[in-house]
Amino acid sequence: MVYITSWDDFAERSIQLFRADPESTRYVMKYRHCDGKLVLKVTDNRECLKFKSDQAQDAKKMEKLNNIFFTLMARGPEVDTSEVAGKEQMEQPAKKGRGRKQ
Amino acid sequence: MVLLQLDPFLSELTSMFERSTEKGSVWVTLKRSTLKSKVKRNKMKTAGEAIEYRCLVRATDGKKTISTSVGAKDHQRFQASYATILKAHMTALKKRERKDKRKGAEADKKQKGPKKISSATKASV
Questions:
Q1: Which domain, by its residues, includes B74?
Q2: A50 contacts on B by Cβ (under 8 Å)
Q3: Which of A23, A30, A99, B86 has its CA 20 to 30 A from that of B12?
Q4: Nearest CA in chain A to B79
Q5: Strand B2-4 to strand B65-70: parallel, antiparallel, or no bridges (unpaired)?
Q6: What's A81's domain CATH number?
C-alpha cells in the first residue's frame, strides 16, 4: 500500500470513503513514540488510504480529522462537518474539567 | 476485549501511551457500529425499529485491547479529552522551526541556552 503524501488529499479521500460505506469503514491511528512516527489509515476492506508523518504539525491536522470522524460516526454520515473543524478549539477548555482523567 | 465507560477508557489509554514510550506502538481505531449482531440488526430492520449507531473506539498496544463506545450525546466531550491526551503524549513528533510561537520559544531556549553561557547555566540549574 502506498502512502498518500498530501494531507488534504488524504483527509478528503478518507471522508469520501467513509461516506460511501459508513458501516464498514474504519479509521486507525498508530503512534510509535520511540520512533516518533504517526500513521493514519482509513479502509473499508476494499480500498485502503494511508498517511505517514513524523511532524507535530500533522498531529494538529489529525486532531481536526479525528473530530470529523467522531462526529460522522457518532451522529451519522449526513452531518455537515464544515463547522466541526473550527469548533473544537473553543470547546476544549470548558469541557476539560469534567473528564476527571488526571 | 473489555468494553469500558468513557472515563476509564481515557485513563487506560493514557497509561497505554505511557507504557509504550520506550518501545512499542499504540493503535486507536474508530468505527461506526451498532454494537449489535447482524441477526439482531436484521430483526430490528424488519421490525422497522430505528437502529442506533455509535462510534466504537478501540485501542491496543499489541498486548491489551480496550474499547468504548461514544454516542451522539457525549462525542464532543470525549473528543476533547481524547485530543488532550494525544497532545500530551505525542511528544516525539518533530516540531517545525518557530512555526508556532509558544513551542518555538521553548525549543529556542534549549538550543541557544547552553551556547551562550554553557557552564554557568548548567551549574546554576
A1: 2-93
A2: none
A3: A23
A4: A67
A5: parallel
A6: 3.30.720.10
